[in-house]
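Help: read this over?
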Amino acid sequence: MNPITLPPRRGVDSIMATRRAESFGKRSIKATSKEFALRLAISMTDLTTLEGKDSPEKVRSLCQKAISPAPALDRVLRVAGRAPIPSVAAICVYPNLVATARAALVGSTVKIASVATGFPSGQFPLDIRLEDVRRAVGEGADEIDMVIRRGAFLAGEYALVADEIARVKEACGAAHLKIILETGELETLDAVRYASDIAIRAAFSTGTLTDGEVFIKTSTGKVTPAATMPVVLVMLEAIRDAFHETNTRIGMKPAGGIRTAKSAIAQLVMVHETLGDAWLSPHLFRFGASTLLNDLLRQIARLTRGGYAARDDFAEA
């Protein structure tokens, strides 16, 4: 691991960031482009269950939905000569349920993500957090969603935060890493930007990265506000600047609070205009929003059938 030099602090014009972010939600797109965007958003979704009552049965059911989100709608689409609904990008579970997910997803393209490092607080001792990562990877996780210690960041212990991120990255081995900033606790857009820059710099300290090997992620989904448009924009700008410096593409995952297809499409427009077409792929952009999937399916059903499906037609697994 290379020594970590902390990045310079870059101020954020919060008023302009908010105005620009709001503008992306006012764009209109044609029906053909809308269906493309809806399908793309489904393929970018990390279907998640992170509850105390999670069980192997619930995870197996979630895996089935991840592979085939809407079998009944697929039958309608086949009759119309159209492609079926794509699988989601990944399912995200606690480490003790990774092996269950691995067995249920054999033969599919769906990745397995696991939260680790004392999720959601990140307040466990570092050796326990690192073992949490290694255990999840050993059970078959393709991706690790870690949380930074927000208390340390807010106390100005930036070098400590950077070092812990680098240690977690090393513990991931071949698994990809998503670094959760928990932006709802960082208080300002300036802090969001600096946390993003630190996370990216720490990841690069572990060696050469490939595109999509590391993501930065807004939230655990346990704190509000979460993936607001201004926050996501500031993080996208950090990714853009890192690409200009390194020619490597860091991924992005907004999570928490994205519940409608309209919100998801606004996020995709923002990604396209800030980072370009290359990031419009599950390899570089994800949604951490399980409730979003049902609305995406309802919108595709509306475009296919000419009317909305009932809300419970795509009930959660």
Q: What stands out?
A: The chain is about 45% helix and 10% strand. Residues 200 and 242 are 8 Å apart (CA to CA). The first helix runs from residue 14 to 23.
